[in-house]
Design goal:
The chain is α+β, with helices and mostly antiparallel strands and 253 residues long. The chain has eight helices and eight strands; from the N terminus they run ααααββαβαββαβαββ. It has two domains: 66 residues, Winged helix-like DNA-binding domain superfamily/Winged helix DNA-binding domain (Arc Repressor Mutant, subunit A, Orthogonal Bundle); 151 residues, 3-Layer(aba) Sandwich (Chorismate lyase), CATH 3.40.1410. The radius of gyration is 20 Å and the shape is globular. The N and C termini lie far apart (39 Å).
């Protein structure tokens, strides 16, 4: 039987869920994607046991996933009435509260996407050294990514990590989508969370070329520091976003 949430069989889905992160976190992301995709037309989620069967996980796992969505303000759960989507919330705009990639966020907003990726090893300049907590001149792996929305540049991201943090040295010619994937392949530690600083910015210099914008165009600048569960900083990302394509909101409770 095909899983109506993921489009794949429950057994295969269960194996996929075990490859990254906790089962509850990944089940939560699957349910969130279904909410964003409008699969719950009446705004009401299936009962816990049905969701658990669809995702191939236990009821304990799906209960933890729904509790996470409730804490984020996306759903309300009441005994006797079940779980309903909070209609005042646009889940696709909550990218800052989710460890979701920009390609996913653009697709959830209805765009056809593509990504251009360039990777190289460079010595850390003073700004990069401060971001990563390394010395000026230390070798770093830097990846730049241009995310296209319907063929037009929407987001420009620079990811960086100190080469010394990697157990094996990846080839700069092999494209890696994000630091999470990079560390999965080349380090035993995994990133657990990111801290994001948000700033307004006017387009200038190279970013005008990267995003095909005239100088002075308002942009959203996100400066992210990525941490392991133990609190060790393992990398940084700087994202410059044309808010014509992506907007963000934060729920305060």
């Amino acid at each position: 039987m095909v899983n109506p949430v993921s489009g794949i069989a429950p057994q295969a889905d269960s194996r996929l869920l075990r490859t990254r992160g906790s089962l509850a976190d990944l089940a939560q992301e699957r349910v969130l994607r279904s909410i964003i995709g409008g699969e719950y037309a009446d705004g009401r989620l299936p009962p816990e046991d049905q969701l658990a069967r669809q995702l191939g996980v236990s009821r304990t796992t799906i209960r933890a996933a729904l509790q996470g969505l409730e804490r984020a303000g996306l759903v309300t759960r009441r005994q006797g009435t079940g779980t309903v989507v909070n209609q005042h919330v646009d889940p696709a705009s909550l990218g800052l509260q989710r460890l979701a990639g920009f390609e996913d966020l653009l697709q959830e907003s209805g765009y056809r996407t593509d990504v251009r990726i360039l990777t190289d090893y460079v010595p850390a300049d003073p700004a990069l050294a401060a971001q990563l907590g390394v010395r000026v001149g230390d070798d770093c792996l830097v990846t730049t990514k241009t995310f296209l929305a319907d063929g037009k540049p929407a987001v420009f991201v620079t990811d960086a990590i100190a080469s010394a943090a990697l157990q094996t040295r990846p080839s700069p010619h092999r494209a890696v989508q994000n630091l999470y994937e990079l560390l999965d392949r080349h380090h035993s530690m995994r990133l657990d969370h990111s801290v994001v600083e948000i700033r307004p910015r006017a387009a200038e210099g190279d970013i005008c070329k990267h995003l095909d914008l005239p100088p002075g165009t308002p942009l959203l600048l996100l400066i992210e520091s990525h941490y392991t569960f133990e609190g060790n900083r393992m990398g940084s990302s700087v994202a410059e976003i044309n808010d014509q394509y992506l907007q963000f909101s934060v729920i305060r409770r």
